[in-house]
Amino acid sequence: MGSFKTNEQKATNRHIAWIVWGAAAFFYFFELFVRVMPGTMLQKMQSHYDISSTIFGIASGIYYYVYAPMQIFAGILLDRFGGRLVMIPASIIVAIGCACILIPWNSIWLFAFGRLLMGLGSAFGFIGVMYLATVWFHKERLSFVSGLTTALGFLGAILALKWIPHFAKTYTWQDCWFGASIFGILSLIILYICVPPTPVWERERQKAHFEEFAPKHAFSGFFTVIKNRQTWFLGLVGGILYMPTTVLGDLWGKEYIETVYCLSSEEAGFVISMIYLGWLIGAPFWGYFSDKTGYKRSILFFSTLSAAILLFALILWSNMPISFLKTCLFLTGFVSAPQVICFVLGVEKNAENAKASAIATINMFVTLVGGILQPITGLILDYSYNNSAKSTFHYYCANDFKCALSIIPIVTLIGFFFVFGIHHKPNTKSRK
């Protein structure tokens, strides 16, 4: 009943909605920029700390290990307190995490702690944007806004892959992290200026949330979401579709291309950024297409199967022409982009008063899949490495990468079968 009134109120605040979205999406842009930075300076940082790929994968992956469980708390806090009071402190934490790496101690533990803080603050990035979208936009536009948000985030990853290797040639990798911390302060200022206090219609929803869940306990909304089998299927499918970008784009892809195709750091960074460009174009396209057609489940079938085929081609055909490589990476990102639909389906198939918790839980799955596969890939790399050099920093050959990265298309193909578990229609009972 109240939702009709809410839609009318949202319609009168259309310009404010886009301003709020822009401010929150800029924070998500910054989060993705920071997320992929270790992969752009992998050799320099790994040789500086003198650690193996397994250890570096674990230290960098701490971002994901913190990010994933924090989704639970992020959803609860956003459902209860709104976007402004939660996202501003989150941006401060990410900036501090970037600054921690600048402390002049030659310790991998300090890098790991910085990544921990980055993951802690970034946990509120995408969920915060999507939560604010549910507050300010009509539900019919959520898939498109979700896609647009993802596109802006991946623009941050593209710029990091393009700028950081070039910047690191002139300056040190520590200077890059200093610039990132300044970037975080800018995000904080934008959030403070542009995100208003919680509007009246959202305060009414928060009140209903308290009335429904407060008599039980703070995690009641999360437990309601996690008990829903649809949440598990959507989270696993979303995580598997995002996993190639996490493993290839965020960490191992650049070094793989440098090694197999004998490209410079800048050239390899540009090539691997094609996967993010595919997401940049694909996310809003698939979001808009799914809003218009309603074929969300069918799109996910197409997405998982085609992504698996493209990834098998990428790994098995290791001497393809560079133009084909760029096209294949772009198409991999493009067909993986329907992952944004999983968040909208998660909102549809769970209770209205736990919408942030639904988005957060699915995003937790998304992060866990990538966070687990990153160090596993590093472990397989170390295991397949057969050189007798004593240095903990290894220079892998093409076969080492081929063996380690073959896990990506196999897991993606498994995601195709998980789509069968997603229901055709929204769970209308849970929406009441």
Descriptive account of the structure:
There is one protein chain. The chain is 80% helix and 0% strand. With 432 residues, the protein is mostly helical. The termini are close together. The protein has one domain: Up-down Bundle (Growth Hormone, Chain: A), CATH 1.20.1250.20. Helix 8 packs antiparallel against helix 13 and helix 8 (142-170) runs antiparallel to helix 14. It contains 20 helices and no strands.
Structure in a nutshell:
The chain has one domain: Growth Hormone, Chain: A, CATH 1.20.1250.
By CATH's scheme, which homologous superfamily applies? Answer: MFS general substrate transporter like domains
Poorly predicted spans: 1-5, 387-393, 428-432
Radius of gyration: 21 Å
Q: At CATH's second level, what is the architecture?
A: Up-down Bundle
Residues in β-strands, percent: under 5%
What structural class do you assign from the helix and strand content? mainly alpha
State the CATH topology: Growth Hormone, Chain: A
Could you estimate the helical fraction of the residues in percent?
A: over 70%
CATH top level label: Mainly Alpha
Distance between the termini: 10 Å
Count of individual beta strands? 0
User: What is the overall pLDDT average?
Assistant: 81
Overall tally of domains? 1
| Major β-sheet profile | none
**Number of continuous helical runs:** 20
Output the helix-strand order: HHHHHHHHHHHHHHHHHHHH
What is the general shape? globular
